[in-house]
Amino acid sequence: MCEKRPRLAKLYFVAEVILYLSYFKDGTDALNHREIIVKAKEDIKSYNYPFHYRNNINTTFRFNVSSINACWLNLIVVDFSVQPSNGCTKDYLQVGDNRLCGDLPEGYTALRRVEQENDSMTVQFITDSCITRHGFLIKHNFVECLITTTTENPSTSSFVFNCPFENGLFPHERLCKKYYECKNNIAVLKECPPGKLFKEEVVENERFADCEDEDKVNCKGREKVGPLLDIKRSKK
Fold first, then answer.
1. In 10 A of CB 59, how many CB atoms?
2. Integer distance in angstroms from the first to the last C-alpha of the chain?
3. H or E stretch including 69?
């Protein structure tokens, strides 16, 4: 059931009428379902930003992975106001398995892990048939993991992990049981205790990361077991 449209939103009525007429002129379906190729250092924004976006749209933003050493796509909020809802079930920005909605502060960041076998990745903006807001403007970059091969044998390669944030826990790029603990931009490789795997998720726009019971963790392509690689500490 739709919420009552806020009084302030009524001020946009004339602009929305003109906007809707342009949708019919350009082709409603093409605007409802479209894909945007995001160039390097290009911002992403909701359609019609900074004015209200429309209802019932599904926009896919496709990012080309900038480097073979990229570990994460990092999204940095400049402005974000999307219809709020419990569990972000109405209007939301889909970042991997996580959804963002409501009002987010400037500087809020969201990470999505790069799957090494893919040369591109996507983020989706989906809206329902209820009220709208002025949407979002978001910057992006890729966080790299530097790889140095010390011998011709890949199993003895040496990895240098760059912390995406000064402090926090972050998943290993290949192994589900391992993770990095960053303190003051220094990364230390750690391993979850027996019977647990590393899990990260975003709930109500808050990021959580810790070791959880194996049956509660989706490894998202990472191996549950594997050889311990030589991971060096990295300091920015």
1. 21
2. 49
3. none
Name the nearest CA neighbour of 186 among 139, 221, 236: 236
Q: Which of 159, 184, 177, 180 is nearest to 169 (CA)?
A: 180
Nearest to 156 by CA among 227, 69, 229, 233: 229
CA quadruple 123, 114, 103, 51: dihedral sign? negative
- Cis amide linkage into residue 154, ω under 30° from 0: no
Q: Quote the pLDDT of residue 60.
A: 96
> Are 148 and 229 contacting, i.e. CB atoms less than 8 angstroms apart?
no
pLDDT of residue 26: 47
Q: How far apart are CA 203 and CA 207, in angstroms?
A: 6
Give the pLDDT of residue 175: 87
Residue ranges in the chain whose pLDDT is less than 50: 23-27, 147-157, 227-236
CA–CA separation, 141 vs 111, rounded Å?
A: 10
Q: Which of 143, 142, 231, 141 is nearest to 187 (CA)?
A: 231
